[in-house]
Amino acid sequence: MRFSENGGHPRQKLLAVLRRQGVHDERVLAAIRAVPREAFVPSKHREQAYENIPLPIGAGQTISQPLVVGLMTQALRLDGDERVLEVGTGSGYQAAVLSRLAAWVVSVERIAELAERARRTLEHLQCRNVEVHVSNGSLGWPAGAPYNGIIVTAAAPAVPPALVQQLADGGRLVLPVGSRTAQDLLQVTRRGDSTETRNLGPVRFVPLLGEAGWEPESDSEPPATT
Fold first, then answer.
1. What is the mean pLDDT of residues 62-90?
2. Catalytic residue among 4, 64, 135, 220
3. pTM (predicted TM-score)
């Protein structure tokens, strides 16, 4: 399969799928159209880059299903001048999409190997408004707070208070919450000292590891990096 920078057939087909399944924000769809997903997956999976499926990226992690990326990004309701925190850089694909929708993106990743690979890919694609840090993402990145939006690409057992505290008033936190094997995607909006929560439906993510997340179950889950 050949890919083109201006969006060939596989990319357009994916966008049609996303529209049918609930991604209606045209700015979000334009960002997904513009970001070459094949740049963020291992070479052996590039033929599948525009299928609506998650793909392995190494270190026991995955690049999220495009539909989930679209729905989570849409739930942030970005206008373009926001400061956004991403917890779980992974491949860097979600950060690249966010870079086209927000003024500045701070992304944290606990696995140094993935963080460095994502940095290189984002630099290659000239995503100059993204900074990537190696950190225990369950505690966010307080140095860059407050954020107008926070997106968490791993599942937490509960909404981490540290992330809510890093939201600006009116800011939105989008994250999966539940067990290790099944979660609901939540949109949490901060209103002064209180929050409003909306359930966006069932999802399945890898667990968020760290102080405000889960403990590693086995040696197959690397410990959180601080």
1. 97
2. 64
3. 0.91
